[in-house]
Amino acid sequence: MRKTRRQWMPQQRRARRRRQRVKKKRRWRSQRKRRRGRWRQKRRMRNQRRRRKRRVSLLEETRRLMMVRARRNRRRRRSQRVRMTTNRG
């Protein structure tokens, strides 16, 4: 629902609807911005520069990236689980 539609809605109905509405998954604006342009190429260049600085092989770098990503996903999954149990009912 766009903002223009919400403006003329009566206050009581808007309050009731706000309680019932399911929380939407947040879409980060920065993520959308990153899709535009040559962000992938830039990221690759940046990674190469970092790798050259520490003389790390590609395999080690990917392994470390996977570890970091897994750790982040684990944290996110745990928070999602807690959220699921809290707003039940």
TrEMBL record:
Chain spans, region Disordered: 1-61, 70-89
Q: Which superkingdom does the taxonomy of this entry point to?
A: Eukaryota
Q: Where is the sequence biased in composition, kind Basic residues? A: 13-56, 70-81
Q: What is this protein called?
A: Uncharacterized protein
Organism, per UniProt?
Brassica oleracea (Wild cabbage)
